[in-house]
Specification:
Elements lengths: L5 H4 L1 H12 L3 E6 L20 H11 L3 E4 H22 L5 E2 L4 H10 L13 H16 L7 E7 L3 H5 L6 E2 L2 E2 L3 E4 H10 L21 H4 L6 H15 L17 E8 L2 E9 L1 H12 L7 E5 L19 H15 L9 H11 L5 H7 L3 E3 L8 E3 L3
Parallel strand pairs: 1-2, 1-4, 3-10, 4-7, 9-10
Antiparallel strand pairs: 5-6, 8-9, 11-12
Iron/sulfur cluster binds next to helix 7.
GO cellular component, one term: membrane
Main location: membrane
Protein name: Hydrogenase, Fe-only
Length: 385
């Protein structure tokens, strides 16, 4: 009997409960940037409460062996995506370059705008990157066959449940991520196990895939991926520190945001769209040639991942504003706020990935897209630039 109905509602919750019960594999979990600013609402905390430490503690009490942070992988995404953008600047395109971390946007693009396949960054979404690193680098480090690792992603997102079954996301013959649970489903799991969430002590993520920066944190909100990428692309591309690291012009909940960024004399035109209608509006203008951009961030949910379909439901009309403020607070309080300064990311490149866009980085962290606009049976796999 399940007191909150989760077991009958969702077979993936049951699957995770079974794995926790059996515990015959190494059990690893990762948590998305937006989960930590919403999970507390399920336990009576105010919207916008930051419950990172309690969430980590709850996951340990559920029985996970390692609790890793998708924010770490967001930093890794920026290393790859920022470098890809710099390569395109050197090679003349194709522009605009689109972000790739939102699987709902990728589904839409493959079905409705396949002409943009060469424009979308080939970087996998951060949780897929972390999954791929766990089942290669980390598996070797702990001397465990990747088949004996069970990895759960806690996401604000329902689209990521479909993202994990893409064949191009298999790694070493196994799925990079085994199960995606939403923020709400994690809350159900914690309630089923009667873990007293609100009174748990704060605990830290595990090493080596638990260290992250403020740039990784802001992936959870619209404009965040763009801002994080600009922080790194500017410093790696120009070799000098940014004066002010906040890009205010891409922040806020306006549906479409545009900005011109001075990149050492070159004026970069960027845009950010979130929420289905805004996304369609912006894409149709690009297709019609009415606007030009160098770099575009697309997130399917209103507000970005803070407003994801798997987040707690709220009657508070300001819930997105409160979660957004919490995300920027995490960034402000972070000791390191640029992805390329994350010491654990540097170590990962030294020990395994060599350098951004290396052969091994491509094998592990990049993906391909399919034109799914054609009639069934005529799906074509397009190699990325
Ligand atoms: Fe998932 Fe929505 Fe975030 Fe896209 S914007 S990754 S669909 S939660």
């Amino acid at each position: 009997f399940c007191p909150v109905g989760a077991i009958t509602e969702n077979s993936q919750v049951r699957k995770v409960l079974e794995e926790l019960e059996k515990h015959d594999k190494v059990l690893i979990v990762q948590t998305a940037p937006a989960t930590r600013v919403a999970l507390g609402e399920e336990f009576g905390l105010e919207p916008g409460s930051i419950s990172t430490g309690k969430m980590v503690a709850a996951l340990r009490r559920l029985g996970f062996d390692y609790v890793f942070d998708t924010n770490f992988a967001a930093d890794l995404t920026i290393m790859e995506e920022g470098s890809e953008f710099l390569e395109r600047l050197k090679n003349g395109g194709p522009f605009p370059m689109f972000t790739s971390c939102c699987p709902a946007w990728i589904n839409m693009m493959e079905k409705l705008y396949p002409q943009f396949i060469p424009n979308v960054s080939s970087a996998k979404s951060p949780h897929q990157m972390l999954g791929a690193v766990v089942k290669t680098y980390f598996a070797k480090k702990i001397n465990v066959d990747p088949k004996n690792i069970f990895l759960v992603s806690i996401m604000p997102c329902t689209a990521k449940k479909d993202d994990i079954i893409r064949p191009q996301h298999m790694i070493n013959g196994v799925p990079a991520v085994d199960v995606v649970l939403t923020t709400r489903e994690l809350a159900k799991l914690i309630k089923i196990k009667k873990i007293p969430f609100a009174t748990l002590p704060d605990e830290n993520y595990d090493d080596p895939l638990g260290e992250s920066t403020g740039a990784g944190a802001i992936f959870g909100v619209t404009g965040g991926v763009m801002e994080a990428a600009l922080r790194t692309a500017y410093e790696l591309g120009l070799g000098k520190p940014l004066g002010k690291i906040e890009f205010e012009s891409v922040r806020g909940l306006e549906g479409i945001k545009e900005a011109t960024i001075d990149f050492n004399g070159k004026k970069l035109k960027v845009a950010v769209a979130h929420g289905g209608l805004n996304v369609r509006r912006l894409l149709d203008k690009i297709v019609a040639g009415e606007v030009y951009y160098d770099f575009v961030e697309i997130m399917a949910c209103s507000g970005g991942c803070i407003g994801g379909g798997g987040q707690p439901k709220s009657l508070d009309k300001d819930v997105l504003v409160k979660r957004m403020k919490a995300i920027y607070t995490i960034d402000e309080l972070s000791v390191i706020r640029k992805s390329h300064e994350n010491p654990s990311i540097k170590k990962l490149y030294q020990e395994f990935l060599e350098h951004p866009l290396s052969h091994v980085a491509h094998e592990t962290l990049h993906t391909t897209y399919m034109d799914r606009s054609k009639k069934k049976g005529k799906v074509e796999v397009l190699e990325h630039v």
